[in-house]
Amino acid sequence: MYHPLSTMPTVVVVGAGVAGLCAALQAARSGAKCVLVEKNGICGGTLSAAGIACPGLFFGWEGRQVIGGIGWELVSDTLKTCNTPVPDFTGFTAENFWRFQVEVEPFVFTALCERKLREAGVELHYHTMLAAVSRLKGGWKITLCGKDGLYDRSAEILIDCTGDANAVHQAGFPLSVPRECQPGTYSGFCSGYDPDKVDYVALKEAYLKAEARGEILPADLGWGSGFSPLFLLRRGTNANHVNGINGCDSEGRTRMEVAGRESLLRVYRFLKRNPGFERLRMDCAMECGVRESRTIIGEERVTAEEYRSGKVWPETIAQALYPMDLHDATQGIIKVDLPRGVVPTVPRGALIPAGSSGLIAAGRIIASDRLANAALRIQAVCMATGQAAGALAALSAERHCEPKDLPYAVLREELLAHRVILPENGEMASPAGGREECRA
Ligand SMILES: Cc1cc2nc3c(=O)[nH]c(=O)nc-3n(C[C@H](O)[C@H](O)[C@H](O)COP(=O)(O)OP(=O)(O)OC[C@H]3O[C@@H](n4cnc5c(N)ncnc54)[C@H](O)[C@@H]3O)c2cc1C
Questions:
Q1: I want to staple 155 with a disulfide (CB 3.0 to 4.6 A). Which of 12, 267, 397, 436 is the partner?
Q2: Which pLDDT score, from 0 to 100, does residue 438 have?
Q3: In this structure, how many other beta carbons lie within 10 angstroms of the beta carbon of residue 139?
Q4: CATH value of 10-178+293-417 in 3.90.180.10, 3.50.50.60, 3.20.20.370, 3.90.320.10
């Protein structure tokens, strides 16, 4: 089945995590015909499938909002539906930043997203995996694998929101792959015990004996630190480490899921034979959460120094706000705070694979060094880069120009019109973005 290019520019977004959702919604709202492809039967990616449902950070210093747009719309609509008041965002500091993330009900979030996708006219393909990407004149042929086999879609612009740069890889562009990735985390959902009544001293003793016998491992019950009350206090959510695996492809992802469930099984067996856990119940997330796999090599790349200094890029497309928070299997958490008042920014070039045509990336795969990526991977920023990618794709496709050549002023105006928050004093390379002419 082959669908020729329609009169309306088509944008295909691969991956319906938080970045892909915002990219697809914005592309459709900016006038493109948009196809959103997702391998799972639910959108949200890490937020839903891996059970990490606390997007951050939308508000920061002096309670000021730094990320708005579709990301905040999705989060605030979820809160509204749940009758949950918007948290008080005053009192933000470099130390208490984590309290300013917003917990959302994943099911409500995903159901609302599906409704918004429908209202925007996005064509949603669940249970569909990207199979191949090949260049067409003026666009892409994108081969998808659905339940009944392979089929094609064509698009002027392809947006990679897979979290692992699978589309960019299939399009033949090089990627940056860390020697060792940050650990993943397999979230459990535990009940049937009271964390306030646990005898943590006795449990630690039992843990040390079990660890000496090899029945439980140091990364099972905490972030690599051996015994920690973290797992029990968080009821298993975001409380362990799955080390030494890059989950960028099916092989790595398979090893991660298996290793993650083995880890949870060790914890279950250990706890179940200790007093207070007789009625323990443990479920697990659909998937292991992946902190890091690989990033694109972009037209521009955000470094840790640029992030920490709050550099305002000439073509800023999003703001960010999170300390650099790198989980390391041996060194623990490496955290680099932002100086008070600093709001880092993201340039358009970090979303564009170097030397590419008709290709954009968003979410945690944007071009950045490892330490900067340890902050840019946060959900609110992924939402913001997703939204920027959607606008950039729709406007470039409409004007038949490359995403890097769309006049910045045009992109900026579209983003501001859709409630994206950009630095007021953002210098522009030139008022029209320095590139008046769009290349075909
Ligand atoms: C353990 C852990 C804790 C975290 N804690 C926080 C936190 O407290 N606050 C916070 O804001 N952020 C946190 N993060 C970071 C954040 O959750 C992720 O970096 C972010 O959600 C990534 O979003 P994304 O859309 O780029 O990618 P993903 O969430 O990975 O979404 C990618 C989507 O693409 C789909 N996909 C992938 N490959 C294909 C393919 N080939 N074909 C079709 N579909 C495909 C996937 O199924 C998925 O739905 C945490 C991450 C982890 C792992």
A1: 12
A2: 43
A3: 19
A4: 3.50.50.60
